[in-house]
Design brief:
single chain, 227 residues, alpha/beta, 6-stranded mixed beta sheet, 4-stranded antiparallel beta sheet, 7 helices, 10 strands, 35% helix
Amino acid sequence: MSEEPVLSLRDLHRTYRSGDRLLHVLDGAELDLNAGEIVGLVGPSGSGKSSLLHAAGLLERPTSGRVLVEGRDCTDLSDALRTRVRLATIGFVYQAHHLSPEFSAAENVMLPQLMAGRSPAAARARAADLLSDLGLAERLEHQPAQLSGGEQQRVAVARALANRPRILLADEPTGNLDPETSASVFESLRSMVRGQGVAALIATHNLELAGRMDRVLTLRQGRILPA
């Protein structure tokens, strides 16, 4: 019997009001994401990729439909419970790194661990291991402003994986980088995800990078189709 998907979206709808108009960004979107696979999500700007990721990551509630994380329907959970599921199960990487500028690279990776209740010593050890694996062993105490764009994104990847999530959601994680750095950061992300057996859903405009993933889905007119 096949293993249950770690993330399932069922008949997902997301509607926004713009003045007197209703914008139907998601219109019955569905997907299953399995442990250990890396899935690309492509589609034109404005197609709803970010809205889908926000719903999948329990950051926004869909207008209707269901979001199941490890088989648990999380759609109607309270905000406090949704936060607990996110912290324990889901990691995020964005196009902008969103690192705290006053903290070092290591401290940025420690933050989600401390929020989850890990001791400072254990959090620092985990941060050092992750950053070293990403080629940043000599940059642990550097603040984001002292890092290159590629290094900043590697720190963001380490932070997303710090709590050993089952799911990684990434929204244009290399979109702000030049092609060479983009390819390098993506390879780092892919290597880390593979090594930890994480299920990853990565939204990207970069079709060359999408082609390196296990499969690619297209978001079109609010629905998900094979690319």
